[in-house]
Write a structure and sequence with these properties.
Length: 167
């Protein structure tokens, strides 16, 4: 009986090790720009602006579920995202292009700061912010801890695509 217990315990430990290694392996993620470009792109989704023309790719995690996530947004030239908030704390890096980002409850161009490729910024939870592009688009990587959402300060500014994806 003692041998059987030891055998079952050893088997259980082995299974646990396999599960832990599999979970760790799923977190080991390395994506080249070509691999990111090949991934499925979509429009509005949890944590995105819902503005037409913006393409979103989930790079890691799931912004609809509890846990860390990273999304990529590809914003075309001459795009405006009105003032909005998110329930989660987020950080972002501008991967390419020029991104004009501001904090405030109303999109006011006097409040934007030009963020070229390589720039970093934060989107604190429940702090209103807005963004735009001018003559060139931008690619931005945004990371947070979900679930996330997007709530526009003025309901009239909520894009139709966004209302379809509210949580």
């Amino acid at each position: 009986m003692n041998g059987l217990r030891k055998s079952l315990a050893a088997t259980g430990m082995c299974l646990l090790a396999v599960v832990v290694l599999a979970a760790a392996d799923a977190r080991l993620l390395r994506l080249t720009p070509a691999e990111i470009a090949a991934q499925a792109k979509g429009g509005a989704g949890p944590g995105t602006s819902g503005v037409a023309g913006i393409l979103t790719t989930t790079l890691s995690g799931d912004p609809r579920k509890a846990g860390p996530y990273t999304i990529e947004i590809r914003v075309p030239p001459n795009t405006r995202i009105q003032a909005h908030t998110h329930r989660d704390e987020r950080t972002a890096v501008v991967a390419s292009g020029r991104w004009f980002f501001g904090y405030g409850t109303k999109a006011d161009e006097a409040l934007v700061k030009e963020l070229p490729a390589g720039s970093f910024y934060t989107e604190p939870a429940h702090v209103a912010h807005f963004a735009l592009t001018r003559d060139e688009g931008a690619v931005v990587y945004i990371s947070g801890f979900g679930p996330t959402d997007t709530v526009y300060n003025a309901a009239a500014n909520t894009p139709a695509d966004q209302t379809a994806h509210k949580e």
